[in-house]
Amino acid sequence: MKRLVGPVAIAILLLANLLVARQAIAHKWGNWHWNRYGSSVTIRVYNTARYWTEANRAVRDWDNNTILYLPDPGTHTDISLFDGNYGATGWGGLAEIINYTSGSHITHGHARLNYYYSYSSTGKQGVFCQEVGHLFGLDHSNDGCMGMGYYNNIYYTVPHNWNDIYNMYRYSHH
């Protein structure tokens, strides 16, 4: 019996480590991410949206609750926020990676709100929250604004989203 305890304990520890590692990467949008890491990660976000207040609330939510520092430099930069009446496209929000380097490193992206579709003020905030989250490298999840329209109607970030950002950007991905 003693001989089985060692291998069983090792197998349990390996399985637990695999589950924790899988959870840490569970909501990544492919391999996309910024090639930045540390205790405070700067990604500049320029807000030109007509619904500036809603877009700004979404960005401030990410800024206030994660290790991301998201200043608005007042010019076209890392991430730019836009909105417009793009018509009956089937999408209410769109995240576009405009430029990237090898290794799926994002260098510039656009987050768009299509106000052809009717959204409340908090709904617009939620769309911006989700699209900006995609440009940080997050996929849809069942929590917070990253699940909005798919799994829930939550228009803001939640601790699960914050942990996903921490796991992606606290330490080097290489």
What does this structure look like?
With about 170 residues, the protein is an alpha/beta fold. It has one domain (about 1-170): Collagenase (Catalytic Domain), CATH 3.40.390. Helix content is about 35%, strand content about 20%. It has four helices and seven strands; from the N terminus they run αβββαββββαα. It has helices at about 1-25, 50-65, 120-135, 160-170, and strands at about 35, 40, 45, 70, 80-85, 95-100, 105-115. The strands form two sheets. Strands 1, 3, 5, 6 and 7 form a five-stranded mixed sheet that branches. Strands 2-4 form a two-stranded parallel ribbon. A hairpin with a 3-residue loop joins strand 6 (about 95-100) and strand 7. Helix 2 (about 50-65) crosses helix 3 (about 120-135). The N and C termini lie far apart (about 40 Å). Residues about 5-25 have low confidence and may be disordered.
How would the blueprint of this fold be written?
Blueprint: H1 2-24, E1 33-34, E2 41-42, E3 45-47, H2 52-65, E4 68-69, E5 79-84, E6 93-101, E7 105-114, H3 121-135, H4 159-169
Parallel strand pairs: 1-7, 2-4, 3-5, 5-7
Antiparallel strand pairs: 6-7
Helix pairs in contact: 2-3
If you compute it from the alpha carbons, what radius of gyration comes out, rounded to the nearest whole angstrom?
Answer: 18 Å
* Quaternary organisation of the protein chains: single chain
Q: CATH class, anyone?
A: Alpha Beta
Q: Write the CATH architecture name.
A: 3-Layer(aba) Sandwich
Terminus-to-terminus distance: 42 Å
- How much beta, percentage-wise? 15-25%
Going by CATH, what is the homologous superfamily? Collagenase (Catalytic Domain)
Order of helices and strands: HEEEHEEEEHH
Unreliable segments of 5+ consecutive residues:
4-26
Strand elements, count: 7
> Main beta sheet: strand number and arrangement?
5 strands, mixed
Based on secondary structure, the structural category is alpha/beta
Determine the number of helices (DSSP H or I, runs of at least 4 residues). Answer: 4
Return the average pLDDT rounded to an integer. 86
- Approximate helicity band: 25-40%
Total domains: 1
Choose one word for the global shape: globular
